[in-house]
Amino acid sequence: PIEAKFVRWQTEQIVNWLYGIGLGQYASECRKYFKNGLQLLNATPQELEKVF
């Protein structure tokens, strides 16, 4: 499944994805909070609000 690949993404892959979907303005904050896809996938709504 796609989730299996996403959880292994590193920070730069997440940042590239954000730019690809037009959300590059959040790249800097994303680098601070998420080191891999698993962290992003497991983030709480409150954590996501801090970044996005």
Account of the 3D structure:
This protein is mainly alpha-helical. It has a single domain, classed as DNA polymerase, domain 1 (Orthogonal Bundle). It contains 5 helices and no strands. Helix 2 runs antiparallel to helix 3. The longest helix is centred in the N-terminal third of the chain and has 10 residues. The chain is globular. The termini are far apart.
Throw out a few tags for this protein.
52 residues; mainly alpha; DNA polymerase, domain 1
Secondary-structure element string: HHHHH
Helix residue percentage: 55-70%
The percent range for strand residues is under 5%
How far the N terminus sits from the C terminus, by CA atoms, comes to 26 Å
Q: Class, according to the CATH hierarchy?
A: Mainly Alpha
Largest β sheet strand count, sense and barrel closure: none
* Structural Rg: 10 Å
Give me the number of helical elements. Answer: 5
Full CATH superfamily name: Transcription Factor, Ets-1
Name the structural class: mainly alpha
What is the CATH architecture annotation?
A: Orthogonal Bundle
| Uncertain parts | none
Q: Which whole number gives the mean pLDDT?
A: 92
Count of beta strands: 0
General shape: globular
- How many domains? 1
Q: Please name the CATH topology.
A: DNA polymerase, domain 1
Helix and strand topology:
Layout: H1 2-6, H2 11-20, H3 27-33, H4 37-41, H5 45-51
